[in-house]
Amino acid sequence: MEFTDDLEVSGFPDDSQYFDSLDNIEGTLAPGEELTGQVIYEAYENQENYLRITGGLVASGAAKNHIRFTFEKSEIE
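Above: the chain's sequence. Below: its structure in token form.
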């Protein structure tokens, strides 16, 4: 997953791997399963931001679905 404020360009990767105190999200999900953990993304201060599947994964066929979550500025901490 990557975080971006512009769907036409690449975004920022999850930086949680650099923090030993975080419960990182790792693994593969099967249909109907869920994972919980913590992520950290670098972001610009824009009104609307997106968390999406990395474009290269979709283009290569590794990810079969386009997944995107939209966040308003007020929802980001």
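The longest strand covers residues 48-52.
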